[in-house]
Amino acid sequence: MNLLDKVIEDFLTENIGKDVIALYQLLNGKAPISEFVLAEKLNLTVNQVRNMLYRMYTFTLVNFTRKKDKKKGWYIYYWEFDKRIGLEVAVENKEKRLEILRTLVKNEETTQYFSCPGNDVRLNFETAIEHDFKCPECDKVLVQDNNSRKIQRLQKTISELEIELKEIKEIKIERKEEPVKKKEKVKKEIKEIVKKPKTEKKKFIVKKPKKMVKKTKKPEKKHALRKIFKKKIIRKKIKPRLKRKR
Q1: Which SS3 state, helix, strand or coil, does residue 150 take?
Q2: Read out DSSP for 172-204?
Q3: 201 part of a folded domain
Q4: What's the order of all strands across the beta sheet hosting 62-68?
Q5: Where are the beta strands (DSSP E) in 89-225?
Q6: Is 16 part of a structural domain of the chain?
Q7: Rg of the chain on CA atoms, in Å
Q8: Residues of the chain where predicted confidence (pLDDT) is lower than 50
Q9: What are the C-alpha distances in Å from 6 to residues 82, 93, 164, 233?
């Protein structure tokens, strides 16, 4: 097994669960796989596989792409494992563990511990005084604990972790270039065009003025019609008056 795979699998077992390792082995170093294919290979339901993937997704260890099925009409999710983030998370976990172990060694070296002969409790000096150097469980007299072996074990695990961390940090994983979206490409092209200096000047075309054509006045028909209409009205008004006089 590769050192990188071992480190990631250790992290998965400690923080997510052993059931995820089989899923990691399927996704490791492969193109995105649909959750239905993963469920078939692991002999599990789709919901079980999704639960495992979501647990890994909380640590951003997996990425997904969504595609619509043309025949059925629903969306299918394709998953892949990100080794680069897996390495970063595993290193952080190891470093935290180192800090905890170093603090434990300091406590063991600086403080005195008293333990029960029956291994019921282990108390520091202050709490042992409060209980009159007697076990609160079985009321036996406490004995000063010789923690030299425990300190040696802790120091051994610290040295092993430090060597492992050095080896892990030397591993380099190439970062995948994310596909640039069409909109971003268009924006970049527009920016480049705007930045380019304008070499050609615009040619101003002078338009020739249109020839003025004198409009001939047409005879006004309206005025002629009005005069005829007035004459008719006058005749109608005059005739009845003449009849009355007769």
Answers
A1: helix
A2: --PPPPPPPPHHHHHHHHHHHHHHS---SPPPP
A3: no
A4: 33-34, 75-81, 62-68
A5: 113-115, 122-124, 143-144
A6: yes
A7: 47
A8: 179-182, 186, 190, 193, 204, 238-239, 242-246
A9: 15, 14, 11, 118
> Angle, to 10 degrees, between the axis of helix 148-170 and the axis of helix 83-110?
160
**How many structural domains is the chain composed of?**
2
CA–CA separation, 189 and 74 (whole Å): 35
- pLDDT one-digit tens code per residue, 187-196: 555 455 455 5
Can you list the alpha helix ranges (DSSP code H) found in 111-146? 125-130
C-alpha to C-alpha distance for 101 and 95, rounded to whole angstroms:
10
For 157-207, the pLDDT digits (tens) are 999 999 988 888 887 766 555 544 445 554 555 455 455 555 555 554 555
Count how many Cα atoms sit within 13 Å of the Cα of residue 245 in the half-sphere of its side chain: 5
Last-in-domain residue among 15, 47, 81: 81
Do residues 120 and 102 both lie within one domain?
A: yes
Residues 6+ apart with CB under 8 A from 97: 161
For residue 130, tell me if it sits in a domain: yes
Which CATH number does the domain housing residue 73 bear? 1.10.10.10
Structural domain containing residue 99: 87-170
The partner residues of 81 in beta bridges, in order of sequence, read 62
Beta partners for 62?
81
